[in-house]
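Weekend entry, working from home. Most of the wet-lab plans are on hold until the incubator is repaired, so I used the time to fold the two sequences that have been sitting in the queue since the last round of cloning. Logging both here for the record. First:
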Amino acid sequence: MLVVLMGPPGAGKGTQAERITKEFNLLHISTGDILRNAVKEETALGLQAKQYMDRGALVPDEIVVGMIRERLARPDCAAGVLLDGFPRTVEQAEALGQVLESLQLKIDVVINVDVEAEELLSRLTGRRVCRNCGATYHIKFNPPRVRNICDHCSGELYQRSDDTVETVKERLDVYSKQTLPLIEYYQRKNLYYAVDGARSIDDVFADIAAYLQGKQ
């Protein structure tokens, strides 16, 4: 089984990916991990990617796609794969389709953990981090015992610059504009399945698991 997992920042995609891979014995392939490993191993594509990463530029699609092709061709992918973080655009989806065809593979389902922007804003802007020990809290879901004070070391809690309302809104807007055409692309191929990610972690996973069981 080959599953593509989508979801905006703050949707809880990482938690669901962990559960899905364990329950269905799938290999979790993250594009971030692939990039880091290729750079660490100094593969030909990794060295090319490093040139872009070192100057803070986006790694071109053709390099990322090449890395994914190399990774999917390995024997440990034969039992099944959860692809996380790719594709993010229609162009990437088309390139992935060509890669899969060349490897005689196909996508079984594209799952989107869907959460309304207002809920995502609440989740992402509520995060607080300890300046001393780095412990993470959430003012709504996991608050400290004393406001703005770390439970572990009594350090000051602060809001990261990328967790402010303005920054989060911009991230969500970019994600929405980028992925809407991708959602439509996979809907046309009858591969798309949306899950209501505003519910509890257990309820979201139960929905995903039931759907994937029907695909086996």
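Second, folded right after the first finished:
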Amino acid sequence: MKVSLVYTGTTPELIELVEKEVRKNIGPDAEIISSQDPTIIAEVRQAGYVTPGAAARLIGMYAAAVQQGADAILNICSSVGEVADAFQPAARYIGVPVVRIDEEMCRQAVRLGSRVGVLATLATTLDPTKGTISRVAREMGKHVELVDGLVDAFNMDQDQFRVLLVGAAQKMAGKVDVIVLAQGSMAYVEQDIEKAVGIPTLSSPRFGAIELKKALQAKGSIA
């Protein structure tokens, strides 16, 4: 069995965390293909939206993963999640599911409360994540109030970033029922935030890995 992890921007910590969660769910023997194109997120950040060129390159990465024999694809970047949504008819036809790392996390947030705080360091991730939460809430027959938490983490190390995120979460305390970390790279702060504010806090890697396993089970690739 072979799975493809598609990144548009990454850090060594994010790769390690995502692969750990994936292997925990689908087993140590699966072959993992890790593909990266940082020009995609760079272009999205500069433009402030997913440009046609960025979307085309991401779709090209999906196609390359299929040609490499991937049984399923995990789309890591929340900023371009709508590209994964748009690709779904082709994925079904090809027989290689493309799983968004963040969608089930957003569903869980809606299950946990009607006031959802969203923490992000990029507006290009904040807005799509809010859009996904609003969409899944409608699909679930619920209405949610979204509270923005956009923080500037430029040039910060991990410890500084941790302090910044915990502080931003504390400002949300009393205003939200659950906090969503919009970027997978934030996942290592999840438990710190939950401990500091006493509010359920969600990050995407563990949810994405579970959904990847479900997609592989649905097509009979694993038990």
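Plan for Monday: verify the second prediction. The two ends are 12 Å apart (CA to CA).
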